[in-house]
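call fold target=Peptidyl-prolyl cis-trans isomerase
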Amino acid sequence: MIEENKVVKIDYTVKNDAGQVIDTSEGNEPLAYLHGASNIIPGLEKALEGKAEGEEFKAVVHPDDAYGQRNEALIQTVDKEVFQGVDEIEVGMVFNAQGPQGNIQVTIVEIDGDKVTIDGNHPLAGIVLYFEGVVREVRDATDEEKEHGHAH
């Protein structure tokens, strides 16, 4: 049964409100995580609590239990020269930047001449996520996994 300090492997698909697939483990190895160590979003972790190996799951996870609400203050327009050393910048590129709370990832959302609009919100911020899948494995975490805070 899924509880704290268990290593869990799940096969999953996550969709948005429109039913578009945002991410899936299909065609890949199942996702492995250490339950209770904040390895996955809180809403999905809560939904998986108490499930058993082989059990199917569905979960609707709202932004406050996922990647948070969108914060318009994280959208800024900067001079293109901020990206000096990068040969060619394009919409959709992701960069690490220094923000008030430390390092954040920013995505280029618009380029207008010498002005570049960047968005520091997580791409899934403000979005309701619809998960479904199956629990593939549940096992006790090793001491090393507990110490490191993630599945090996």
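return ok
The beta strands are 6-15, 21-24, 31-34, 56-61, 75-79, 94-99, 102-112, 115-119, 129-140. The radius of gyration is 19 Å.
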